[in-house]
Each structure stands twice: as structure tokens, then as C-alpha cells.
Structure to design on (332 residues):
């Protein structure tokens, strides 16, 4: 979707953590951009958002800084968020005389007060109306799961900073659970280990690459290693170290365990007759961090039911939000 091409009247948004997604309910076309804002700290002004802001990472100077305006869907600063949305709506193709109706996927932990703040901020930025779609429902609908019948279905979303799961039937959640832990949490755990064991500090992108190359949550004895380069936390100079897959596994295991416990808790809370349904239907995974190697295998062992990844792992929530938005009456 090219910049400046106006979407249909309604737009679905998944604020996420590391990435922001928006989707046109009519075409189901999804756009993904880094959830970043380039700001002028002195003036409190948002200069750019998304890809353009990301291009300034490591190069912003003076009063300019690249920030994450949202964490777990929550706004760090309301004034900054309003300016962020103004620019974002323009990128979608909306302007002063064409205001969008926004559907927002709401995390399970969102309070009524937080929803009011988000809605107020978006309308101040130019939205004509704002409605919220439960993220659990959105994940299931976006994955094309059958949740309207009397039989149980389970979905689990593992994102950058949040893990949530729920068992659904008759179009609603019977059980749900969530925890502020995700793919970024694994990265933090690895970074903390490298600092404590080697006095080694690495940039986030390099830690992510190390995680992708060495971490297999289903194999604690993987015979791999990598030579890495970073900064010495004590001297500031360059530092090299050889890191093994076993070390990365040990660093990540507690975080992975918390993810599993969050998902399993939603399963164990389900009524017995619904749990029996899940022996056949299993649990569907969405969210980028659900792609972590070996996660599906250890989850299947923990749950004792089939585990499968959605065909659209990363965009299921925003697509589901768009589909739900397309079925409800949106205030004009």
C-alpha cells in the first residue's frame, strides 16, 4: 500500500510493541512499520514515524531522539502519541476532511480508563470514532479459527513483550491468561547473561541474530557456537567472545518457561468437556515470537495437545481486528 493512498473509511490498528500494523477491512491489505517515532526532545515535536524514524536509529543528533511511543499497546506520553497518530493517519491517506473510524485491538490487560485515554488521543489526532476489539478474539478470527460453535478452540499469541492465551467457544472466551513477557524478554535475558558472564554489551540487532542462530528451546544440548563482537561494559573498548548454544538456552529458559506457564494456565482453567475438544483442535499460535525455534515443541509437550502455527503468524491480530470491525456498526 503506497503512502498517500487513502484507505476505506474504517481502519484496524494493532499498536503492538516493536511493530505497528494497520489493515483496510475492505481489502484486508496489511501495512507493517517499526513502532518508532523520531522526536525533537526540546520542542516535544514528532518529526517522523515508522520506517523513516527507524532510519534515524543510531544517527539522531542534538535534541533529536528515536523512541518507542508505545509499550504493550500503552502510550508512554499522551502528547507524543497524539502527534504520532496525526502523522500516521496522514500516511494512511487521511486528512482534515477525511477522518477514519479506527478499530484498535485491545490487550487483555487494558482497563476501561486506558481505553478512554487511547480513544481520546486518537480522536484528538483526527479519528472520527474509535472502537476496541478484544485481542484474543482478533487473534482467533484473524487465524480463521472456528470459534462460533459449541466446541472448544484455543489460541495463544506470543509477541515482542506480551504473551496471552485463551480457550474459546460460542464466539467468546471461556478462559484467558496473559503475562508481560515475550520475544524481547528473551533478548533482554540473553543480554543480561552476556554482560554478567563476559562484561559484553551488544546492540539489540546483534543479540537478535545470536538468538536466531543459536537458540533452540527444544534442544538444550545443541552443539553450536558463535564468535561475537561487542563492547566491554567496564572499559568501553571492543570485546570478542565465543558463545555456545547451551549458554543461550540457559539464559532464555526461564523466560520461555514463563511463556509456557501463561498458556498452560488458560488451558487448565477450561471446563473438562471443552478441554476434551482441544485434544483434537489443539492450540493455534500467533505472534512473531511464536516462531522462536523449538517453542512449539516444548509447548506441545507441556500441554499434551497438538500445537500449530497460524498461516499468518505476525498479522493475525490486526487482520482479525479488521474482520470484526467490518461486521460491527461503527459510529460516524
Amino acid at each position: 500500500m503506497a503512502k498517500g493512498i487513502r484507505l476505506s473509511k474504517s481502519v484496524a490498528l494493532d499498536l503492538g510493541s516493536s511493530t505497528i500494523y494497520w489493515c483496510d477491512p475492505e481489502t484486508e491489505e496489511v501495512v507493517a512499520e517499526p513502532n518508532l517515532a523520531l522526536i525533537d526532545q526540546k520542542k516535544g515535536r514528532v518529526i517522523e514515524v515508522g520506517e523513516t524514524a527507524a532510519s534515524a536509529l543510531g544517527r539522531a543528533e542534538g535534541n533529536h531522539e528515536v523512541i518507542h511511543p508505545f509499550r504493550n499497546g500503552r502510550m508512554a506520553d499522551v502528547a507524543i502519541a497524539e502527534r504520532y497518530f496525526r502523522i500516521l493517519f496522514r500516511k494512511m491517506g487521511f486528512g482534515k476532511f477525511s477522518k477514519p473510524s479506527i478499530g484498535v485491538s485491545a490487550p487483555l490487560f487494558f482497563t476501561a480508563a486506558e481505553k478512554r485515554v487511547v480513544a481520546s488521543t486518537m480522536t484528538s489526532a483526527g479519528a472520527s470514532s474509535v472502537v476496541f476489539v478484544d485481542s484474543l478474539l482478533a487473534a482467533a478470527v484473524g487465524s480463521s479459527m472456528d470459534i462460533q460453535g459449541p466446541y472448544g478452540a484455543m489460541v495463544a499469541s506470543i509477541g515482542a513483550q506480551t504473551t496471552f492465551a485463551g480457550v474459546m467457544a460460542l464466539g467468546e472466551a471461556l478462559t484467558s491468561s496473559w503475562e508481560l513477557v515475550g520475544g524481547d524478554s528473551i533478548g533482554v535475558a540473553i543480554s543480561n547473561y552476556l554482560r554478567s558472564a563476559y562484561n559484553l554489551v551488544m546492540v539489540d540487532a546483534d543479540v537478535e541474530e545470536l538468538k536466531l542462530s543459536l537458540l533452540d528451546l527444544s534442544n538444550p544440548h545443541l552443539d553450536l557456537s558463535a564468535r561475537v563482537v561487542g563492547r566491554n561494559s567496564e572499559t568501553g573498548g571492543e570485546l570478542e567472545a565465543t558463545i555456545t548454544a547451551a549458554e543461550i538456552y540457559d539464559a532464555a529458559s526461564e523466560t520461555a518457561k514463563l511463556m509456557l506457564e501463561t498458556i498452560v494456565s488458560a488451558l487448565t482453567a477450561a471446563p473438562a468437556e471443552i478441554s476434551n475438544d482441544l485434544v483434537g483442535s489443539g492450540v493455534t499460535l500467533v505472534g512473531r515470537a511464536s516462531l522462536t525455534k523449538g517453542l512449539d515443541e516444548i509447548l506441545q509437550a507441556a500441554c499434551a495437545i497438538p500445537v500449530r502455527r497460524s498461516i499468518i503468524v505476525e498479522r493475525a491480530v490486526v487482520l482479525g481486528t479488521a474482520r470484526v470491525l467490518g461486521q460491527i456498526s461503527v459510529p460516524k
Summary: The longest strand covers residues 172-179. Confidence is low (pLDDT under 50) at residues 1-7. The chain has two domains: 10-137+317-325, 148-310. The domain at 148-310 is CATH 3.30.420.40 (Nucleotidyltransferase; domain 5).
